[in-house]
Design brief:
Keywords: Carbohydrate metabolism, Cellulose degradation, Glycosidase, Hydrolase, Polysaccharide degradation, Signal
Catalytic activity: Endohydrolysis of (1->4)-beta-D-glucosidic linkages in cellulose, lichenin and cereal beta-D-glucans
Strand content: 15-25%
Shape: globular
Strand order of the largest sheet: 4-5-6-9-10-11-12-13
InterPro entries: CBD, CBD_sf, GH, Glyco_hydro_5, Glyco_hydro_5_CS
Protein name: cellulase
Family: Belongs to the glycosyl hydrolase 5 (cellulase A) family.
Order of helices and strands: HEEEEHEHHEEEHEHEHEHEHEEEH
Structural class: alpha/beta
Number of helices: 10
Helix content: 25-40%
Length: about 425
């Protein structure tokens, strides 16, 4: 979730540059509106991917994934009329009590289920699938809730009964269900694999989760929500690798696994901050990359924090176009598992355009998941929870106008 008091500062900083005024390896070096360095450090070449984005690529780079990602084979150009594989909504509640420092109070979790005195998350998901045409839900949960606050501990049986009730309600709709550990690459302020929990401890919780859901083909494993301020991106890739290996070795050999990068896994900086190149090294135990999808987030407000009602951009030139090019270059795919805006006209305009662009590039973008429904009140600035009167559900403005597949935004205009 966009719990980011530091996010505005993080995103206000330009892409890292060397002391000599040159862009680093994989850094941006040109494009529409670019005011930074236009030359690259030694050993790299400023390569134009499109009129909107150029990047410093190693002059000897021949990076190629060991296998293609699933669902479709990336093509070379956007195609009007394409549709996204996944469209959905985050069903929040089990992540309540979590801060962006990875401090999650297990007692702060609020199951979005009526039997636990929450909102009717099950009814929301039934409405979203049967009426709006959605087919995926992301179910964020704090790591501490899963183990009842014990680092390295087993899944807590009582807590898992509650969380599994939401998972089963999701599966009952026929939709795919993303299990998302919502800890920002941390446990109580300490970074996984870099002074905090060990990679073995991180792998252990994923072994337990994957063992439980190994035979559920519609489960998607979201390795970690929004890592940020990670000192060493290559060490983080090693932590992600540990989780992937654990999931596959637990018997979940065919489901999608979502790989997140640094800087709140922002789509805009996924490549330039080194996340993309580092995560290219993550593989399945057999050396393939089948089912390994990059996890990216992007909001439409002025600081990409997801905390403001108004939208100011469709993110196409700054984020989606350059990322699409890079994904095609590397024969990989990404999934936008958090995006959203307020229920106002500006967000209707820009969100519809963003969705249209993603659909036109559905060979590399699997889909989007809006933030958020579940236990959020109707007054929540990014609320997507429908209101219920008797047996009738009414969607929010943004859902009805853009986010819901039946709204038709995928075949609409990109505004360009």
């Amino acid at each position: 979730m966009p719990s980011r008091r530091l996010c505005a500062l993080a995103l206000a900083l330009p892409a890292a540059v060397s002391v000599y005024g040159q862009s680093p390896e994989w850094g941006q070096c040109g494009g529409t509106g670019w005011t930074g360095p236009t030359t690259c450090v030694s050993g790299t070449v400023c390569t134009e991917y499109s009129s909107s984005y150029s990047q410093c690529v190693p002059s000897t780079s021949t990076v190629t994934p060991t296998s293609t990602a699933p669902v479709s084979t990336p093509s070379s150009t956007p195609v009007a009329g394409n549709t996204l594989t996944y469209t959905g909504v985050n069903i929040a509640g089990f992540d309540f009590g979590c801060g962006s420092d990875g401090t999650c109070n297990p007692t702060g979790a609020w199951p979005p289920l009526t039997q636990y005195y929450g909102m009717d998350g099950a009814g929301q998901m039934q409405h979203f699938t049967s009426t709006d045409g959605y087919n995926v839900f992301r179910l964020p949960v704090g790591w501490q809730f899963l183990t009842n606050g014990v680092l390295g501990g087993d899944l807590d049986a009582d807590n898992m009964v509650e969380y599994d009730a939401l998972v089963q309600a999701c599966l009952a709709t026929g939709a795919s269900c993303i299990i998302d550990i919502h800890n920002y690459a941390r446990w109580n302020g300490e970074i996984i694999g870099q002074g905090g929990p060990t990679n073995d401890q991180f792998a252990a919780v994923w072994t337990s989760i994957a063992t439980k859901y190994a035979n559920e083909e519609k489960i998607i494993f979201g390795v970690m929500n929004e890592p940020h301020d990670i000192p060493d991106i290559n060490l983080w890739a090693g932590s992600v690798q540990a989780a992937v290996t654990a999931i596959r070795n637990a018997g979940a050999t065919t489901q999608l696994i979502l790989l997140p990068g640094n800087n709140w896994t922002s789509a805009e900086t996924f490549v330039s901050n080194g996340s993309g190149p580092a995560l290219l090294t993550v593989t399945n135990p057999d050396g393939s990359t089948t089912g390994l999808i990059f996890d990216v987030h992007k909001y439409l407000d002025f600081d990409n924090s997801g905390t403001n009602e108004d939208c100011v951009t469709n993110n196409i030139d700054s984020s989606w176009a350059p990322l699409a090019t890079w994904l095609r270059e590397n024969n990989r795919q990404a999934f936008n598992t958090e995006t959203g805006g307020g229920n106002v006209a500006s967000c209707v305009e820009y969100m519809c355009q963003q969705i249209a662009f993603q659909a036109q590039n559905s060979d590399v973008f699997l889909g989007y998941v809006g933030w958020a429904a579940g236990n959020f009140a109707p007054t929540y600035v990014l609320g997507e929870a429908p209101t219920q009167s008797g047996t009738t559900w009414t969607d929010t403005l943004l859902v009805a106008s853009c986010m819901a597949p039946i709204a038709g935004a995928q075949s609409g205009s990109t505004g360009e």
